Amino acid sequence: MTLQLLTIIFVDGLNYAATLFLISIGLTIVYGVLRILNISHGGIYAFGAYLATWLALQLLEAGLPPYLSYLMLLAGGIIIGLLTGPIIERLFLRRIYGRDMHIQLLLTYSILLILDDLMKLIFGMEPLIVSEPYTLLGQFSVAGISYSRYQFFLIAISVLFGGCLIWLVRGTRFGKLVVAVINDREVSLAMGINVNLIFTFAFTLGALAAALGGAFIAPTIAVVPGFALEVVVLSFAVIAIGGMGSLEGAALGALIVGLSRAAAIHLYPEIELVIIYLIMVVVLAIRPEGIFGEEELRRI
Amino acid sequence: MNFPRVPIVGQIFVVLFLAAPALFPSWILFLLTKSLFMFIAVQGVALFLRSGNITFGHALFYATGAYTVGFGTKWFGFRELAVLVPLGALAGLIMAALVGLIMARYRGVFFAMLNLAFSMIMYAALLKFYWVTGGTDGLPAGVATLFGFQLRGSSFGFYYFSLGIAGLVAYGLYRFLASPLGYFLKALGDNEIRIEYSGESVRHVIYVAYVIAGGLGGISGVLAAFTIGHIVPEDAFWIQSGEFVFIALLGGFESIFGPLMGAIAFEFIQTYASKYFPLAWQMTLGGIMLLIIIFKPGGLWEIYEGLTSRLKNSRWGRYILE
Prior knowledge:
The complex is a heterodimer.
Chain A (H helix, E strand, L loop, with lengths): L1 H33 L6 H21 L7 H23 L9 H23 L8 H5 L2 E4 L2 E4 H23 L1 H11 L1 H6 L4 H23 L10 H15 L4 H21 L6 H13 L14
Antiparallel strand pairs in A: 1-2
Chain B lengths: L7 H16 L2 H25 L8 H18 L4 H23 L4 H21 L1 H4 L5 E2 L3 E3 L2 E3 L4 H23 L1 H9 L3 H6 L4 H27 L1 E2 L6 H14 L5 H20 L4 H15 L3 H15 L1 H7 L1
Antiparallel strand pairs in B: 1-4, 2-3
Helix pairs in contact in B: 2-7, 2-10, 2-11, 2-12, 3-4, 3-10, 4-10, 7-8, 8-10, 11-12, 11-13, 11-14, 14-15
């Protein structure tokens, strides 16, 4: 009995952790390189989810084979990521690098407000639901409980995402340039690195991760107006626990939050929501820079 | 008593506000009443902005004040302003004193996001415990009384009561900002370590500012509940917090009068935006905010100061200002 319960908590927690990792990885990339907490992240995520769902619905209505809906999800995420990323970075963020923290937060916050309404204007107020990608893969059972295969598909995708990003940062020339820019912007500039271009790339990468995350999570939820902000708060909690700007931190944060939320749901459902913030407060009280974070020195 | 030197725009405001019931139709009076309680809440946000921090969760305290009225009405049938305003302030203070214990440790990104998280918890709790809070339906506020006399939310009496409270708040804040602690708060955005060199604890400064801001939020919530007449969980929602931030930014937070200009402008923008583009309210807010951040970070106050300094340099202007 207890073993079965533990298995259920573990599997549920892992599923939820995959979702959390997908929603928070873009935020941590952008913070890591630009040192800006991108509140509009939630808007990009929601936009990705909306366009992916809408495209998949169009495809199904046209009577094309439902297996193509996975391609539609991918296309929706990529379109939104490549569209919003460069626009937001080039038009708006570029103007506020080096300005006060509260100005930077306010700017990304206003972009979130605009994106939130833009989605309502484009896709309407009705919730969009596409369940075919979710049901197509079928179900299988673990420890007597049946699970949808799509949940495990999400785990695979998040592992793939994480792996690709770690390879990108550790194993490629682009990664080395990014690390140089993070460590010292001015020296990198002097060495001939096009810092502006690196910033645009990094932000677009973050936007792409957010939009793709939204696109693949969309079939498991109903896409409704106004779910953007919840995502910002959740993903902030995840990366604050793991350490802002760290990829491994986002993975660990997602696992901790996912498992403890699953445990809370099965053992003590009243604290389901509070537990996430409780963990965040405890971790930040003990280690303010997060588990994998680097300590920042105070200005003198 | 040490009275503040009120800038000329402030003097004009005071005269206009006092004479408003005689000058304007009732719908404008209602907007002015609303801008007064917004003004009070926004002063809390402006306190943090002065120190270079920002909060996206100030609606937590606003909702605390509003639900103080809601529970007073629901459980005791009690609508006495002379008691509820101090009680709302106290509820806000207590809430801020508790949350502030955690919050005083953080700045910048963490301060902003943890505040947001706390207000989201409040919002979720207000929705979830519907048998206490009325859930999405909220609670009715009813008609307030002041020393036993009824004051409708849209009446002259309630307007003057709000004006009196707003005046007291403005004066109290002036005194706080002119105190050593107020100066330390302003210095916080520039250099924290120097504050500690001069023997003041940064955490203490933030904590005091946080508790004051909480109390202001509580007062504002009480007035809002009676002005609008209805209390809903959305009072704690992030859009509400965003509106406070918007007003602080629109008006400018360097002066006490900035948020007043911001609050009045906000009420008129809201009225016209909901008339002409009802679906794009947040987009309007966000768009105006972007323009201010990029072109005029000091808000309306900066525009006003630019105008007066230009006037001061012209011959005629000097007569007007002196």
